[in-house]
Amino acid sequence: MPDSDVMEPDGAFIALEKVEKVFEVRKKAGFLKRERRQVRAVDSISFTVARGEMVGYIGPNGAGKSTTIKMLTGILTPSAGRLRVAGIDPSRQRTRLAHRIGVVFGQRTTLWWDLPLIDSYRLAHRMYRIPDARFRENLDRCVELLELGDLLDVPVRQLSLGQRMRGDIAAALLHDPEVLYLDEPTIGLDVVSKAKVRGFLKELNAARGTTVLLTTHDLQDIEQLCSRVMVIDHGRLMYDGALAGLHEAGESERTLVVDLERELPPIEVPSCRVVRVEGPRQWLAFAAGQSAAPLVASIAAEYPLVDLSVREPDIEAVIAKMYAGKAVS
Ligand SMILES: Nc1ncnc2c1ncn2[C@@H]1O[C@H](COP(=O)(O)OP(=O)(O)OP(=O)(O)O)[C@@H](O)[C@H]1O
Q1: Which of 1, 30, 61, 194 keeps 20 to 30 A from 317, CA to CA?
Q2: Residue 17 Cα to ligand 1 middle (Å)
Q3: Domains in the chain, CATH or no CATH each
């Protein structure tokens, strides 16, 4: 049984306090000379995750995401700060923690390449000492929901990327982990496979309350799965909050698309600007935090309005803007 009573005082399941990771790297600086340099991969990061939360962890390449995940699993030891998962210090009690967490790295597999899929699961059964009935139950559930029935006897090397990914997710869940770290779980998958993986994760979180920390470059993963997102860049936390709030933090704009009865000069109403005109259709940009209602009212009062719609800002653009901004303290 998981010792769920071992928790941070504020009930946080994952807790990081001013966590840092500094790597020492040696760089060639001449014929024989080597220069020592420090890379601050994670720079004083603090956050907490409550049990059952599904949180997105995003950032550009080299931002420090994988380093954070490696510290959370105990593979790497922080250079400074305090880190706890289920009350456990991961680098000190890695084996004990291993029974409570599941990890999926999209770019690498934990499955045995030359063996049928089922053999990797049997190995996990013994390695984690999962009680027989529990193992059966979890395997049956994963096989059904991840559609692995026809694949169990197939050697892993013969599986497609999407099939292998589903196989990897099942392998990470057979021992009932309370938290699942996913590093790029949909990378390289086609639309159908992505939908299957996302659907499964949603179900897992809803039915079992599994805490999920999701690292991805696919923002649709975040939009469809996570109510909260953390943005990291240059090892620092730039944003931690609701996905919707990213728009405001990125000072982004929404667009009002207006269809008029006929072609007219650019609309002139306060607090917005026309960014495009095509025949009777005009595009007006306004601050994302501002309500569209007064804008619509004044356009309707002064112009022959036929139809309109509001477009949300492109999340990619919002995040790109954030990367160029400043970190949160
Ligand atoms: N073992 C290591 N030794 C030296 N530097 C490292 C090591 N691991 C990571 N780094 C450096 O730390 C920084 C953060 O790397 P990390 O892999 O955590 O980024 P990431 O956000 O996961 O990037 P990506 O999206 O490309 O996977 C990078 O500058 C990287 O070069």
Answers
A1: 194
A2: 20
A3: 53-75+86-247 (3.40.50.300), 253-312 (3.30.70)
